[in-house]
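WARN retry 2 of 3 for item q-0093 after timeout on previous attempt; input resubmitted unchanged.
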Amino acid sequence: MTPPPKKARTVQETATDRLARLLTMVPWLVARQGIDLDQAAAELGITVEQLETDLRLLYLCGYGQMPDELIDAQWENGRVFVTNADTIARPLRLGRDEALTLMVGLRALASVPGLGERDAIERAMAKLEQATGASAAAAARVEVAISEGVEAGLLSDARRAVEGHRRVHLRYLVPSRDEATERDVDPMRVVNLDSRWYLEGWCHLAQDTRTFRMDRIARLDVLDEDGTPPPDAQLRDLDLGAFTPRPDDTPVTLRLQPGATWVSDYYPVDSVQTDPDGSQTVTLRTADTLWLRRLVWRLGGRGTVLAPAEVAASVREGAQEALQAYE
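OK item q-0093 returned
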């Protein structure tokens, strides 16, 4: 009996998620040359429109820039043919450094409290240790901490809420305003970025998707209520970090002297203009101007707010108050 096809879905994903899906999709299509377009979309669990979008993207992918170095995809006749993709279709072969890096990552992952599928991690570790032989000892000498500042129980409860689609009530500390807020959240995922744990979900207080640092969650209660986010709730693209500006955030223009230009590398910016002396004029967006004031004060005179005027005035007043405190 042939199993029913997977239900098609509209894919809403980050760049990293899409890359992972394409890396799986290409060898799958190579092994099924001439597959019907509708059938391929159904088997992959995506819409025909999404599959066609992915196939158009493949035109830009390959190991070089010449026409014979790029993947070729054809589907105009209703059947999908993917050629010139032998490189990506071959099994992955890890170098020594790549294997050791993967082993270090797996060891760090295995130390995460409340993590399931530990047997899969252990099996992968065993295979890598067997393949690398004596070199595997180097990975054991490297320690990576990815759970500092978060209690194991809190992390476990957050994961349980995500998996069970349960709403949570948070008491969340907001250092920039020196206050704690109470809010209900429909959790969507728990993620680790730069050695910090974050809970992302639909916040009923903000009526939007929000990302919460878990070391700032003073209390998390899993409620006996359905925590399914609204249909239009979307995960934020965290490839650039936890700080992702929104279109309605306040645009701020900064003048950065040499020694402070790391700001444009560390934070997402709308524009950067670099002068011959190495200084920069950058524009970024933020919903928290108090955070921005603290950033400028931390630059110690090497950063100046050019616009808007009220933010620049606020920075000057705060600096003057700090100096008066010393007097």
